[in-house]
Specification:
The structure is a single chain. Strand 21 and strand 22 form a beta hairpin. It is built from six helices and 23 strands. The strands form five sheets. Strands 15, 17, 18, 21, 22 and 23 form a six-stranded mixed β-sheet that branches. A five-stranded mixed β-sheet has the order 5-4-13-8-9. Strands 6, 7, 10, 11 and 12 form a five-stranded antiparallel β-sheet that branches.
C-alpha cells in the first residue's frame, strides 16, 4: 500500500466526562427534546427544508438542501454552539423517523474483533458511557476563500461547531469483544443511511482512519443534552475527536477493524488533498484537523476607544496553547487571552483581546498555536479546497469610527 502523508501526527488520550461539561451542554442547548425526531411531512420554515425546519433560519447561510453554513457571528459567545445554529453537510438524504424506527433498537455490527457482536443502542448505553466536547468541522471549511473556486459549498468559517456528545467509548466495545484482531491497521465506520437502490461502492459513506484513533473515539446518541437529531446523524453517530467531520460517520451501523482502508468512493477517491488539476488515492486523506482560529467579533465596525476582539481557536488533535491577534494584517501581533471554560483539547477555546483603536480602517487577523505548530499565513492550495487554516484569508476588515 502506498504510504500517505498525514496532516498531523500526534494523538493522545483524552476523556472529559465531568458535571461541568454536562452542565455547560445543558445550558448551551436551545433545542427542545421533540425536534430530535424530525417531522418530514411539514413544509419547510422560512426557506429551510422540512427535515431541519427547527433550525434558526437567521443564523444560517443556505448553500443547498444538504449544505447550510453558520453565519460567522452566530457561533455565539459560549464555547458550545447552539444546535439551532449548527451547520448542515449531508452526503446522504436525512433519514426519517419511520426509517429509523425505535431509536433504542438501532443496531451496530462490530467486526474485526476476536468476538464479533451486534449491539442495540440500548445495549451500548448499558456497556459504558463518556461525555466529550469536540469540534465538528467540514473538510471544506474555508473553501470559499480559494481563488480557483473548487467544486462544493463555498464555506468560509461556518462549517464548524463545538458540541458536547455522550456515547459509548470504542475502547469499551473493543474490550467487550475480546480485542482487535491481529493485523488491523484501520478503524472503519459505515453508515446505514444509504438508499438500497444505490451502488455501495459509489454511495456508501464508509471511512477508515488510523487504528490509533479508536482510543479516543466513541459512538454517540446524544448531543448538547438531547438525542442526536436525524439531520445530524442520529440515532447513532461515530465521533472521532480531532478528525474532520466526514470521519464522524452518521447513522453508523458497522464498526470494523481492518487491515486496509475501505475501497468505496468516499474513502478511496473523495476527500483527498490533491494538487489543483490532479486527483487519486495516492494523496493524503482528510483525517486530522490542523490548528486553526478566526475572529468572530467585531464583524464590520466598531466605536473608537476600547475595542474587544474575540474569536475561537483549536488545535485538531492537540490542545490550543496560544493565540495572537493583529489589527494591521499581520505586521504586528499581541497575545490574546483565553476566556470561558476549558472543555478539553478537542474543544475550541474562545479568546479575547482588548485594545485601543483610533478611527480608521483595520485588518484584524488571528494566529493560533498548538503542539509546537502555528497557523500558516496562506492556504495550502489544493483541488477541492480542503483543510484551509491560513490566517490571512480568515481575517476581517473593519471600520472604526
Amino acid at each position: 500500500m502506498t504510504k500517505k502523508t498525514k496532516i498531523n501526527s500526534s494523538r493522545r488520550n483524552f476523556l472529559a466526562g465531568s458535571a461541568t461539561v454536562a452542565g455547560a451542554a445543558a445550558a448551551a442547548s436551545v433545542m427542545p427534546i421533540s425536534i430530535a425526531n424530525a417531522n418530514h411531512k411539514e413544509a419547510g420554515a422560512r426557506g429551510l427544508p422540512s427535515w431541519t425546519s427547527w433550525k434558526k433560519r437567521s443564523a444560517l447561510i443556505i448553500h443547498s438542501d444538504k449544505g447550510m453554513e453558520t453565519h460567522r457571528d452566530a457561533i455565539g459567545n459560549s464555547v458550545i454552539t447552539p444546535l439551532r445554529h449548527v451547520y448542515i453537510r449531508n452526503n446522504m438524504p436525512t433519514m426519517s423517523d419511520a426509517q429509523i424506527g425505535n431509536r433504542n433498537n438501532w443496531k451496530l455490527r462490530v467486526e474485526g474483533v476476536r468476538n464479533p457482536k451486534t449491539y442495540t443502542l440500548a445495549q451500548l448505553k448499558q456497556l459504558a458511557q463518556v461525555t466529550k466536547a469536540t469540534i465538528l468541522q467540514c473538510s471544506g471549511n474555508g473553501r470559499g476563500f480559494f481563488k480557483h473556486k473548487p467544486r462544493g459549498s463555498q464555506w468560509e468559517t461556518g462549517a464548524a461547531a463545538c458540541l458536547v456528545w455522550t456515547g459509548c467509548p470504542v475502547s469499551a466495545i473493543v474490550k467487550d469483544c475480546g480485542g482487535v484482531v491481529s493485523g488491523a491497521k484501520f478503524m472503519t465506520s459505515a453508515g446505514d443511511d444509504m438508499p438500497k437502490q444505490l451502488d455501495p461502492k459509489k454511495a456508501l459513506v464508509e471511512r477508515s482512519v488510523p487504528i490509533k484513533a479508536h482510543k479516543d473515539s466513541f459512538v454517540a446518541w446524544e448531543v448538547n443534552g438531547v438525542d442526536i437529531p436525524n439531520s445530524h446523524g442520529g440515532p447513532l453517530r461515530m465521533i472521532t475527536p480531532g478528525y474532520f467531520g466526514i470521519n464522524n460517520v452518521k447513522n453508523i451501523g458497522k464498526l470494523a477493524f481492518t487491515a486496509k482502508e475501505s475501497d468505496v468512493k468516499y474513502m478511496k477517491s473523495s476527500y483527498r488533498i490533491s494538487p489543483i488539476g490532479k486527483k487519486g488515492s495516492q494523496y493524503p486523506s482528510c483525517w486530522e484537523m490542523p490548528v486553526k482560529s478566526w475572529i468572530t467579533s467585531p464583524m464590520k465596525s466598531a466605536k473608537s476607544g476600547n475595542v474587544v476582539i474575540s474569536g475561537v481557536a483549536f488545535g485538531g488533535t492537540r490542545k490550543a496553547s496560544a493565540v495572537k491577534v493583529s489589527v494591521d494584517g499581520g505586521k504586528s501581533w499581541k497575545k490574546a487571552k483565553f476566556t470561558g471554560p476549558d472543555m478539553g483539547k478537542y474543544a475550541w477555546r474562545r479568546f479575547v483581546l482588548e485594545t485601543k483603536l483610533k478611527p480608521g480602517s483595520y485588518k484584524i487577523v488571528s494566529k493560533a498555536s498548538a503542539g509546537g505548530k502555528s497557523q500558516p499565513k496562506v492556504r495550502m492550495e489544493n483541488r477541492r479546497g480542503y483543510a484551509h487554516n491560513g490566517w490571512l484569508d480568515h481575517g476581517l476588515d473593519i471600520t472604526v469610527s
